[in-house]
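Lab notes, practical 5.
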Amino acid sequence: MSTGAKQSASKGDATREAVAAVELPPSLLHHRHFLFNRELSWLEFNRRVLEEALDPAHPLLERLKFLSIFSSNLDEFFMVRVSGLMEQLDEEVAELSPDGMTVAEQLREIAARLKPMVEQQTRCLREDVLPKLAEAGILITPYRELSKEERQRLDEYFAEKVFPVLTPQAVDSSHPFPYMSNLSLNLGLMVEPVEDKTGKFPQAMLGEPRFVRIKVPPVVRRLVPVDDSGTRFTFLGELISANISSLFAGRRTGRAHLFRITRDADLDIREDEASDLLSVMQEHLRRRRFGAAVRLEVTASMPEKLVRYLSKSLELSEEDVYRIDGPLNVPDLLKLHQLDRPELKDAPLQVTVPAPLVKCKSVFDAVRQQDILLHHPFTSYVTVTDFIHQAAHDPDVLAIKICLYRAGQDSPIVQSLMEASARGKQVAVLVELKARFDEENNIEWAQRLERAGVHVVYGLVGLKTHCKVALVVRREGNHLRRYVHLATGNYNPTTSRVYTDLGLLTANKKLGADATDLFNFLTGCSLQTKYRRLLVAPVNLRERMIEFIEREAAHRRKGRPARIIVKINSLTDIQIVRALYAASQAGVHIDLIVRGTCTLRPGLAGVSETVRVRSVVGRFLEHSRVFYFENGGEEEVYIGSADWMSRNLDRRVEVVVPVDDPNLKRLLRDEILDAYLRDNVNARLLQPDGSYIRARPADGEVPFSAQEFFQRQPATA
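Output from the prediction step:
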């Protein structure tokens, strides 16, 4: 064990030994003292994202990126989590959350915590980031502040490029309140009655003031260039608003105000009633557009009368309204990140390739000699795309099998799979159609793969396939050898540049046999219940993880080395939390590196005093999952696709793989995990009350960032 890990483990030993353990209930369900609320814990994660945007140490365009991520995260939170709570409220569901909160309590607390955060985000953008970008020569100028010549030029642009695609929708007795699509940006205004001096129009068209909605067209860029410099822009919404009268000939128009609607976008699929999952998913994607409204965002200048009108029409309460004193759709500004201003961005990442892959001409030669650990994005993702590409073009490769969860839009991996099929290889691909918000993209890939002759499976009934596994079967002499890639992240070269993930390339015979059994389960519906080395959900992963935790407690009671270090994205499973509490009561030192939601309370007297929870939020999205158990000195280390959540353990196909090579174990324990435990720059420490505090260097201690460490010194065995 590394020095940092030993120091962390030794703190407070004497005092903890003397504390009497609290008797744990058989189940922690509805015991608020033992659990944090899942939704509120996630909000605290997004607060940490916002803190990165507030940090002046980051380059300006990176701060803008974090502001955009904060908004995009909230969009998904409302579309999935808040929408589910609101649906329960409408259906008068009385069931409490695992921590014992009612649905109404959760919704009130979400709004109470979130609105100040949104105000902080807007203030940061309006008063800090945008003014500093202007000082750097990147200007977002309000339309009204442009010169006369600039406004005239933009008005001509409006007439030619914007006006033809606008469709005003008025509300009256013959035109009901219009449907507005999810996350669309809209202008709302009142059109005043006028006197028709021509006598050509019915009086019914002239009488009462009418509400009119205009959708800001997504096909027109939201940041409109003011000139040819490429660094001066104005907002499309302001340009439309300034020219609003051209849409209403002969009418008097009020001031137009921007607003944005978020809708329920979570799919409820009855797979047991679906004879054709592909067609069912296509239909659900069409229906997703018409989900119930769950949030209304309006500009701060919108009159209260108009806000109330929109809220009532959308069946939303005041709690669901968010008033924004700044740009209404922050991700529109992310286009600025594409500008060629390297001094305003993070330094480019210098990636490496593991030495064994550099030395050998063939990836198969390298993997046959030793297992190879990949640490993305610091390890080039070419190592993975080359593995599939070489398999597709190697005449000795007979079959390729792979699970695709989120493949991205222009995937070289998918292209290689189609080429392999064209070369006569047997190619089987499980494309998970139920990957949330990637359904449409995955449907397109599935259909293209099928047209290329690939055997495509759409997933399993009742289970989402989330594991990251590729299997290559190769003829070598008179034998067949299996090469396997098992990973924590998706086969997506785009996200691999911004997500931290781990992968293992191996020719281990038992792992190869397990991978074969796994694909027989995925593609042939075999009821495989035993695996040689792999831990597979929902078959044995939950039971084995709890067994490992309890084993550490038993070692500790007998005075043997016992320690748990786990790096995951989320921890919400109640059984796992209870097992960790019991292990802590036995004196096991537990370090949890949990990026996002964590419902376990660390530091509770007599319950979790030996548990420390930290979250690392930085330039890269922490996505790798690592499980370390000291096991009485016979250390075991695993990596895999699963978080400690009930959905991962019970309702998904997940794979966790043991890392047996001593050098790779050392790398994972002493370099990767230890770096996260030493981080005193990007780490936040979870407190017993649910708040997080930044880790700070102790007196005389040097600031240390795990992500920066990996950039300077990629982990290699």
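Observations recorded by the TA: The radius of gyration is 28 Å. Confidence is low (pLDDT under 50) at residues 1-19, 271-275.
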